[in-house]
């Protein structure tokens, strides 16, 4: 029988070429495949399982907060997309158009949804009539299409999977509260499940969503000190409701326009997980969403009792609720170690004849390489303890990366020096003028990531124009 | 305060106009909304929750059987769709074409996937190289688009949600076994969760999937005695693998083409649930997939203790694992009764002052209207028992409809008389010739639903041509 062992090949190191390292990891960890359409990627089982775990966390939380899932059509008539002026300006340049159905040209072009505000509004106009019909707290899981020029796995797809929440309320206060509440759901996912510390804040008008009155964001810092916008939440006021003529009879018998929000988080976050935690051996996955939390590897499996002991451990760990698999293939232990390191499995459990004799096994942490000898009687409690430690360790390491690479500047020259030197996030004051925001970009190549909720007073004036400062902004180079 | 009470309006009766009854139920039970694109329907929360419950049953089963979820792109280049001759002939006439991305025309047209065989094949060609890479047992949850001329909610959408399983194997035997195994998963879903008895069988060549060697089906009979094809499973042999040049090195070191299957079940099944179990008061949902299994309705809720008792029952039933809600709105009990009847909630639990005094409550079955007085101490066990009885009752009623409306014929005249008379399924022998199959359609308006796995010998000759019979076929008028 031919021994065609799959080689675990070397990947580019992070320090030598971070972009190539990323591409290597995405491929070697079997996350995506390229399809025949640029920017449309195949999500392979391991990536999809990761997404399913993220979905499960969010979907549960959405439902606990009273949201219901729905499904809107994938196609939007051009006339519907055109109804809200700012929205169509933002999205029309990057949509894909369906012009033929079967062999016949369509009377009106249909775009493949880039986002579904217009569809939700059309539906609300049909079903919202009275204050009794409000609020509607909806969410949908789907794919959207945006005709991007430059594409990269997870970070910039033409087609990507996401959830888009859409809610409609009787009062602006209720809608605003919803916008912030859902941003906090994203922050909780990022910090407590993905071990990614976030900066919560509001986008400047220049960076906000097309059609929104306000956009809120969670921003994360990647290993290379660039920013990833990881989830956004939008307050629309009654702009869409007016454009789509959504009206309800309020308790006071007056006809009014309701107030709306939307909020979305996409598979982009998987790119964030890779670039926050990964290392030169591949992926490092946060335990709470890892598709496999523990891999059991028998060593010298042909020796008496080893296979049976590995099977028993697998069963015990499964029964205890861990996501666990064992690899009993005829590949060498060395090959297996490298394979599951590449895939970022948080814990590896090795068991061989000598371990067995001692009534112990070995647990190896993916995050720091530490090996711990564990009594067989205690595998469940030790696995639980170590997975928790790994989560905390990953979060702490990412938090340090964020805090050590966040700088303060009071002049444009300082901003430029930091951007060109160490890189990272740069906090400055800002006058609120878009012209100054443009100058940061021109002078230092940075864009405003957000105006953090936690404002600090770093001075009285804008580093650009010298006028009175209104906000503290975090700047950075973004994915 | 204005009392704008939503009216539960009358719906058309099933006997007077079954098609209109169906349309009324779909609307009044708040299952779908119409969008701006013909045949693309909004799935409202109640319909989507039903779909989620169906998904949960199937997804768990798929995973237990070793399948992994993936996600393939929504767009297929025309050249890729064209690779397998029979497949493209079947699907090209009904696909929607994307011709522009942003403001630019595309170099090659892209179709919105009508099904994803071609995408899976393209991916397999990238990742299947050795016998070690086989089998791949994949599934995806997504929407597909088929440019149908006539559309109806659930039964015929242009865009519909489904799952499509795609597997690839080293041997034809393994692939054939998978095809039948997955048909049985669908039959189990239909019978044991949806209370829909099925006929399992094989499609004739005329009715099989474009590109398949064999298509298997589960066929259900609706209340109006028409057939609904409710799930199909296809064996492809190595036809796709040859067309897409998928090759693997087998254990004997020879390069070979692998063997494939696909199988799908869609939101169409929701139309089947409606038309199998519904009645003149609206939906009747099978308890195992009903979004709400029990609705708790306090009667005279302002009387002392009633609200508190209703709340306590709600909590107890939730804790016991039932899907339960209560309606404490200011609508009248009569309005509420009609509303949850329309929505097909299997059990209604009423509690009022007199019940409370007696330490009892009333449970009303949606399926047969029976009312049962239940001691408060026993609500959980009684609810469980009644929900099981409702499931069995619904299945038995549907089974009787199927058996009482399945007829045997030995001449084309008899087939015609049955089709024009009572309607229903008609069993006959058949020579296997497509010309005769066509004659059944011309003479009696029926199509072959399947050649059931449980064959019976009804005679020696084909009712059409008199030649020796090869198969027993079930004929019917299909949705």
UniProtKB/TrEMBL annotation, chains A, B:
Domain Aminoacyl-transfer RNA synthetases class-II family profile: 43-286
Family designation: Belongs to the class-II aminoacyl-tRNA synthetase family. ProS type 3 subfamily.
InterPro entries: aa-tRNA-synt_IIb, aa-tRNA-synth_II, aa-tRNA-synth_II/BPL/LPL, Anticodon-bd, Anticodon-bd_dom_sf, Pro-tRNA-ligase_IIa, Pro-tRNA-ligase_IIa_arc-type, Pro-tRNA_ligase_II_C
GO MF entries: ATP binding; catalytic activity, acting on a protein; proline-tRNA ligase activity; transferase activity
EC number annotated for this UniProt entry: 6.1.1.15
Keywords on record: Aminoacyl-tRNA synthetase, ATP-binding, Cytoplasm, Ligase, Nucleotide-binding, Protein biosynthesis
PROSITE patterns assigned to the protein according to its UniProt record, in alphabetical order: AA_TRNA_LIGASE_II
Protein known as: Proline--tRNA ligase
